[in-house]
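Work Package 4 report. The design task specified in the project plan requires that, given a folded chain encoded as structure tokens, an amino acid be chosen for each position. We show below one input record used in the internal validation round.
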């Protein structure tokens, strides 16, 4: 079954999406997606073709995503405010044949070199966009609708860029079956099921798997409503919760930290029945402040892109504070040692996951796929956890050097590669450091080349031209050498 069909069973008049002041019912959404799908077919796009989506958290993204999937195409969500070079690299690496440019993606797209995208044939943009050769969305949707293209569970649905379980960013292949099975698993988990009467707060970016398949996908499969917010401001976000009667808020720790630090809004979350944090560890002091000030218990969960993404949740359970909960139904989870053997209760082990939601591998990267997946289908997550006698699972460490900034994965190798492109940099290393708002931030250590007179601000600006903002160093330290071990590996612990 095509994943986009999750919008089909719901009553015509129920609200599906609230975006930019407009309410879209499920009947309207189905009509819009069918018309959009017809336009994509008329462009000559074929099932399996990749379509980039550069859009913010709004209706444009939702309609494009569903139209692409329902036409049998492969959605490639990318950060709409990424530097042009990053967009070129990602779209080129998957051979995107078409791309949609939403309002928030116009500025970044303006710097893209079309010659760097040899497979790209079609650019679709909103009305009023000054993009040469672009097909206007309104015109594309002006023709006859087209039927949904049937898809098998193992047909590719989405390519989503992630730092992976090791190495630099790569495109994870998520199938229709992967994404749908995780929606079903979450709906079957005690305390996490959504109802058609729920109203979700959609502030997480939809190019991130948390926003894409937990918030958006979760709302649509349940027949609930999702209120999409393109930019997060803590005060106006609380006002939106009250205005729309939000019942479910899913967010990264940075969201909860912002709200916990506000004053004078103690009753603003009175309508919220389910609050969950993911993508990074929620500090205990933030959880305590949310419960004390707002009366909201923020539960925690654990997941990763390669698992579509939810693996565990503490909602509806009696696990201890700080636990990531228990596995969702239909998913096998193990904690294993370096030899791949199960560890004893109380001992630390790497989380391994197996189930229908585990991804199909990395796009055109057999070595990385083989490193992430065992021959019998276990996903090696690279995250270390312990389980206690009560079955509560706690994250204790990461086996990789991943940095998590506001819930987004940043792999040091990618930042270091950019730093080394600077003509005044001889050597560089990157680590994550604590940050009061984003959880972690990127800090760079740089060895200047002979004769170079580098400035911190210039190095940061150099990175900003080549990396998404959350990946850029916020601090650069100039050092005489980068500490390495006997095998030449950077000693990041020493840098920290």
């Amino acid at each position: 079954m095509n994943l986009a069909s999750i919008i089909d069973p719901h009553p015509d008049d129920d609200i599906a999406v609230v975006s930019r002041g407009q309410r879209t019912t499920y009947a309207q959404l189905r009509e819009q997606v069918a018309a959009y799908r017809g336009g994509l077919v008329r462009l000559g796009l074929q099932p399996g073709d990749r379509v980039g989506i550069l859009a913010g958290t709004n209706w444009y993204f939702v309609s494009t995503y569903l139209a692409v999937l329902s036409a049998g195409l492969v959605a490639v969500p990318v950060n709409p405010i990424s530097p042009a070079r990053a967009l070129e690299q990602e779209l080129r690496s998957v051979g995107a044949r078409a791309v949609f440019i939403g309002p928030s993606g116009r500025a970044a797209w303006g710097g893209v070199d079309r010659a760097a995208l040899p497979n790209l044939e079609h650019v679709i943009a909103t009305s009023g966009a000054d993009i040469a050769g672009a097909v206007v969305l309104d015109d594309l949707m002006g023709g006859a609708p087209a039927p949904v293209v049937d898809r098998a569970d193992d047909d590719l649905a989405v390519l989503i860029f992630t730092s992976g379980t090791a190495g630099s960013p790569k495109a994870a292949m998520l199938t229709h079956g992967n994404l749908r099975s995780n929606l079903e698993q979450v709906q079957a988990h005690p305390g996490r099921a959504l109802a058609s009467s729920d109203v979700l707060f959609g502030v997480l970016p939809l190019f991130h798997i948390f926003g894409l398949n937990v918030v958006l996908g979760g709302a649509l499969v349940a027949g609930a409503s999702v209120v999409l917010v393109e930019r997060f401001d803590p005060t106006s976000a609380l006002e939106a919760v009250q205005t729309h009667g939000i019942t479910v808020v899913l967010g990264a720790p940075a969201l909860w930290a912002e709200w916990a630090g506000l004053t004078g809004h103690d009753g603003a979350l009175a309508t919220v029945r389910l609050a969950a944090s993911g993508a990074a560890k929620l500090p205990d002091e933030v959880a305590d402040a949310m419960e004390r000030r707002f009366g909201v218990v923020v539960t925690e969960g654990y997941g990763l892109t390669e698992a579509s993404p939810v693996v565990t949740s503490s909602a509806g359970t009696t696990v201890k504070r700080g636990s990531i909960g228990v596995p969702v139904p239909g998913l096998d989870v193990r904690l294993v040692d370096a030899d791949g053997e199960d560890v004893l209760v109380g001992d630390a082990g790497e989380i391994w996951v197996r189930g229908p939601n585990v991804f199909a591998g990395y796009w055109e990267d057999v070595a990385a796929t083989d490193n992430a997946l065992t021959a019998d289908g276990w996903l090696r997550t690279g995250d270390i956890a312990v389980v206690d006698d009560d079955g509560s699972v706690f994250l204790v460490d990461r086996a990789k050097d991943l940095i998590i900034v506001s819930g987004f994965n940043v792999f040091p190798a990618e930042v270091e590669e950019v730093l080394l492109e600077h003509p005044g940099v001889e050597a560089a290393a990157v680590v994550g450091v604590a940050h009061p708002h984003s959880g972690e931030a990127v800090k760079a250590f740089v060895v200047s080349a002979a004769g170079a007179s580098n400035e911190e601000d210039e190095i940061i600006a150099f990175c900003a031209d080549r990396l998404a903002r959350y990946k850029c160093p916020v601090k650069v330290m100039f050092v005489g050498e980068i500490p390495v071990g006997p095998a030449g590996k950077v000693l990041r612990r020493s840098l920290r």
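The domain at 178-398 is CATH 3.40.50.12780 (Rossmann fold). Validation will be extended to a larger panel in the next phase.
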